[in-house]
């Protein structure tokens, strides 16, 4: 690289009057680099530094540079300088600066005048910054020669030539937004690619004919389906057919760059087209779905509509086989985004792909959804974080400029473009006219290469239109008459491109018709028609869940761990780096854990949980725990991460058990529930042999991720046959702290339970949590596990376990009476779950009511029928059987399990409810009211007669 002194010695551009101008710029640069034109700032940044191979960069001193400026001011211009029409006197220098400013204006604002709307729906604004007059340039200047600055072009051109370049690059069918990026390196890279190629791809005649073939396929499928299945929903791609060549180019180029897998998430629009023409799903299978000929065991699966279904395939590329995955997606549009990202992260981890060079996430959005759905922002916010980044995502917006039924763009969003939200992560945005497939190919290459170069997200805004309604039964002209008048008159992208190739003599009319005929015949034959698709999926490339087939939740699996192993792991867990300074509160915790490890003190919740992770890690099972503040735990109980109070350095003991252990990570996530839970769900679906956990800071925070729970966690197994072993830890319990953060909404999870789709457990001891977490991985059975975890019980004197309770046994789905009470003397059996058990236990002991037996149901779903019947056998003579809960009657477990209880009770017996009355809120807002309610509840459960307390109704089921 030349130094600035070298430049001053050898560049004719800096002689004479120009030297004074440059010196002035340089002085301003030294005072404030941001005060000068960015193009000059870049040059000064580069020229000030001398780089010698194998040595460090050395900055050029300022004094020799200034001295050289003074010498140049007296020097006669060289022949090169004389080639400029006039010497750069102050007026000419201003003109030169104006030209550079004009170039920069096109980089910033050229996208506003770009020809990116195929149906010319939007009015092209007048952008004053792009006028010559704005920069004090005149038509007479057009034939003057100027320095091009940082423009990727010859060093000197006439202003007319410069205008041609910037207008072609920034005002053509590609509108580029990238000047909001703060990284000079990234901006210069994009400028080189845009300006060096004038935003056009290098395509030979064969490449252009293939492009027409793909457009013919995209259009041909839609026309065929429209004729064969009149009025049926398919969410046509018509108007946006350029998506197919875009994806084809993306897959082939990614394979050429060494990618092994691509995971794609998309909503409905164009999904069937992508499945057929990119993934190679046999058309015959799609026709069967239209005609209802689907082989499905309805007892095991309910299935889903055809435009929600996922698919996987292998595709041959110049660089090798690429495994393609299309994620299953519900109607909640953008919710697939974090799920795909989590799946990609798991696949990258399995391949050891730390930089994202082998597995690529691709997300295909709708314009209205990208602008309107909050999960888009949340997922973008994850993209550059250490534990959620996937090396950058290629985003493709199918921008049909209408969204769903929006009647006016002003009602669709508050930003000029639907993609503006992506600027918050400084992602470049490339708007491209969907009627110019060659420009689409150029942008695809540019976007993928940017992603691979900088490992950041990039946006392709495919500007197109929607030829039909939101679905094929919709009539969009009802609300968009002018738009659809234009669309009806507008030729298709295939027709436009075919005419272009005909004009250039690259095809004949017979060639064009032959492509159309050949594609239709292939459709009618029902065979695979996507190029390079390899029939017979290589099972080594897919996520293998076969070990779960035929397994059930009620297997007897010993989850105990030998005492010697526990002690060895405890030693490693409690070992700290030399000189590591704990916070005084944490130091006390560490002292207590030392005693627990030696059996001198009973285990509390936090240490039993850490031991559960340690035992799994020692068996080679990775553990991934995420959520807000999970490292230490919201309630400062976990301490999986420690922080040196002197240096601030973090230390995670669970990562230092042994050299052969599984990987452990505890991620203090961003303040997001929807995206983070979706991400962890996606990770868990793609990594069956890792324990993946998400913890809500408070149980009710899961409300913010209800779509993930409803559409994926609870139902993906029965809709799509997907397996998942995700664990949700939800702090739950009425502690008198008000309606917020009291309830994890246990009732909602139980309402979603059916067909053994989830496990809902409420462990009440540290040993129970230990065995429950181990059971999730040791047992060859995976379904999501919902755990109602405690708050006050984390430090409750009775909620403790002996070390030897971890050495044998398994998770107890029901815990029988634990006090030495004679069953023959029992007059009432109280069934309960969770924290209320300890309230009942302490009150019973204090009041001496040993005629009441307490049974804990620790697994509410799948309901443990056999264990429940067995637990009640000693109390066959008891008439009063009560269900007690602290939640209001219409919440908690009662309404969801009372029918199960009743079916399992002996004939003639009935279970009664004891608890708070129904309420619209989870809890009262005042501590005094909470305490009063709770005392009444406990008294009614232990001794009150059924229906004796009007505030604690006890209805029969």
Automatic annotation (TrEMBL):
E1 component of the 2-oxoglutarate dehydrogenase (OGDH) complex which catalyzes the decarboxylation of 2-oxoglutarate, the first step in the conversion of 2-oxoglutarate to succinyl-CoA and CO(2). GO terms for biological process: tricarboxylic acid cycle. Its cofactor is thiamine diphosphate. The keyword Oxidoreductase applies. It comes from the Bacteria. NCBIfam families: 2oxo_dh_E1, PRK09404.1, PRK12270.1. It comes from Allochromatium warmingii. Gene3D superfamilies: 3.40.50.12470, 3.40.50.970, Multifunctional 2-oxoglutarate metabolism enzyme, C-terminal domain, TPP helical domain. Belongs to the alpha-ketoglutarate dehydrogenase family. GO terms for molecular function: oxoglutarate dehydrogenase (succinyl-transferring) activity; thiamine pyrophosphate binding. The lineage of its organism: Bacteria, Pseudomonadati, Pseudomonadota, Gammaproteobacteria, Chromatiales. Residues 603-796 form the Transketolase-like pyrimidine-binding domain. Its EC number is 1.2.4.2. This is 2-oxoglutarate dehydrogenase E1 component. Transmembrane segments: none annotated. Keywords: Oxidoreductase, Thiamine pyrophosphate. The keyword Oxidoreductase applies. GO terms for cellular component: cytosol; oxoglutarate dehydrogenase complex.
């Amino acid at each position: 690289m030349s130094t600035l002194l070298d430049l001053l010695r050898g560049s004719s551009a800096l002689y004479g009057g120009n030297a004074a101008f440059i010196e002035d710029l340089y002085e301003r640069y030294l005072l404030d680099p941001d005060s000068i034109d960015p193009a000059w700032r870049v040059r000064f940044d580069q020229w000030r530094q001398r780089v010698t191979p194998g040595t460090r960069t050395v900055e050029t001193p300022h004094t020799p540079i200034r001295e050289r400026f003074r010498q140049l001011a007296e020097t006669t211009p060289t022949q090169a300088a004389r080639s400029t029409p006039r010497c750069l006197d102050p007026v000419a220098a201003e003109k030169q600066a104006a030209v550079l400013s004009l170039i920069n204006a096109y980089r910033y604002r050229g996208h506003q005048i770009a020809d990116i709307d195929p149906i010319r729906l939007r009015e092209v604004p007048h952008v004053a910054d792009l006028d010559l007059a704005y920069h004090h340039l005149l038509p007479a200047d057009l034939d003057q020669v100027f320095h091009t600055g940082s423009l990727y072009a010859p060093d000197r051109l006439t202003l007319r030539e410069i205008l041609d370049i910037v207008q072609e690059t920034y005002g053509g069918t590609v509108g580029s937004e990238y000047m909001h990026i703060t990284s000079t390196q990234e901006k210069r890279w994009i400028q080189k690619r845009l300006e060096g190629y004038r935003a056009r791809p290098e395509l030979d005649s064969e490449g252009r004919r293939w492009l027409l073939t793909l457009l013919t396929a995209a259009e041909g499928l839609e026309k065929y389906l429209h004729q064969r299945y009149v009025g049926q929903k398919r969410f046509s791609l018509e108007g946006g057919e350029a998506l197919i060549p875009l994806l084809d180019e993306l897959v082939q180029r990614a394979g050429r760059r060494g990618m092994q897998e691509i995971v794609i998430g998309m909503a409905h629009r164009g999904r069937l087209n992508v499945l057929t023409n990119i993934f190679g799903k046999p058309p015959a299978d799609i026709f069967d779905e239209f005609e209802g000929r689907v082989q499905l065991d309805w007892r095991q699966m309910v299935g889903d509509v055809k435009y929600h279904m996922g698919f996987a395939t292998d595709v041959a590329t110049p660089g090798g086989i690429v495994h393609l995955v299309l994620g299953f997606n519900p109607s909640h549009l953008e919710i697939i985004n974090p799920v795909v990202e989590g799946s990609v992260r798991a696949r990258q981890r399995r391949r050891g792909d730390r930089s994202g060079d082998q597995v690529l996430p691709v997300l295909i959005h709708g314009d209205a959804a990208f602008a309107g759905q909050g999960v888009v922002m949340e997922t973008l916010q994850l993209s550059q974080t250490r534990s959620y980044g996937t090396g950058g995502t290629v985003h493709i917006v199918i921008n049909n400029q209408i969204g769903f039924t929006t009647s006016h763009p002003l009602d669709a969003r508050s930003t000029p473009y639907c993609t503006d939200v992506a600027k918050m992560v400084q992602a470049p945005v490339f708007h491209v006219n969907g009627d110019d497939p060659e420009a689409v190919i150029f942008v695809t290459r540019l976007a993928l290469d940017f992603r691979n170069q900088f490992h950041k997200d990039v946006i392709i805004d495919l500007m197109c239109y929607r030829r039909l309604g939101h679905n094929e039964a919709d009539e969009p002209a009802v609300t968009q008459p002018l738009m659809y008048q234009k669309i009806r008159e507008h030729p298709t992208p295939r027709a436009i491109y075919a005419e272009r190739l005909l004009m250039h003599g690259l095809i004949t009319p017979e060639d064009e018709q032959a492509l159309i005929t050949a594609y239709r015949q292939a459709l009618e034959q029902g065979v695979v028609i996507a190029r390079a698709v390899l029939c017979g999926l290589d099972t080594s490339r897919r996520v293998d869940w076969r070990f779960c087939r035929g397994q059930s939740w009620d297997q007897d699996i010993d989850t105990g761990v030998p005492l010697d192993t526990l002690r060895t792991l405890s030693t490693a867990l409690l070992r700290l780096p030399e000189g590591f300074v704990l916070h005084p509160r944490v130091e006390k915790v560490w002292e207590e854990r030392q005693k627990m490890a030696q059996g001198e003190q009973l285990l509390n919740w936090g240490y039993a949980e850490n031991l559960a992770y340690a035992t799994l890690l020692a068996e080679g099972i990775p553990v991934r725990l995420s959520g807000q503040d999970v490292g230490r735990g919201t309630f400062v109980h976990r301490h999986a991460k420690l922080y040196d109070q002197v240096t601030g350095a973090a230390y995670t003991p669970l990562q230092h058990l042994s050299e052969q252990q599984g990987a452990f990570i505890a991620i203090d996530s961003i303040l997001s529930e929807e995206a983070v839970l979706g991400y962890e769900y996606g990770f868990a679906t793609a990594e069956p042999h890792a324990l993946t956990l998400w913890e809500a800071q408070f149980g009710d925070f899961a409300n913010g991720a209800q779509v993930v729970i409803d559409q994926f966690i609870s139902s993906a197994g029965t809709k799509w046959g997907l397996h998942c072993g995700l664990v949700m830890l939800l702090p739950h319990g009425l502690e008198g702290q008000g309606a917020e953060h009291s309830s994890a909404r246990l009732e909602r999870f139980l309402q979603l339970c059916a067909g053994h789709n989830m496990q809902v457990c409420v462990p009440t001891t540290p040993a129970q949590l230990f065995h429950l977490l181990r059971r999730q991985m040791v047992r060859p059975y995976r379904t999501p596990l919902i755990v109602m975890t405690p708050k006050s019980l984390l430090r409750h004197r009775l909620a403790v376990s002996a070390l030897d309770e971890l050495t044998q046994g398994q998770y107890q789905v029901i815990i029988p009476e634990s006090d030495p009470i004679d069953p023959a003397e029992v007059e009432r059996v109280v069934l309960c779950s969770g924290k209320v058990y300890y309230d009942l236990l302490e009150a019973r002991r204090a009041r001496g009511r040993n005629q009441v037996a307490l049974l804990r149901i620790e697994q509410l779903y799948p309901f443990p029928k056999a264990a429940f019947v067995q637990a009640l056998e000693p109390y066959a003579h008891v008439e009063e059987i009560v269900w007690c809960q602290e939640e209001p009657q219409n919440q908690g477990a009662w309404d969801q399990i009372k029918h199960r209880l009743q079916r399992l009770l002996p004939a003639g017996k009935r279970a009664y409810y004891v608890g708070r009355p129904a309420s619209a809120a989870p809890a009262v807002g005042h501590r005094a009211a909470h305490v009063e309610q709770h005392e009444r509840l406990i008294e009614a459960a232990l001794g009150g007669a059924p229906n004796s307390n009007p505030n604690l109704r006890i209805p029969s089921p």
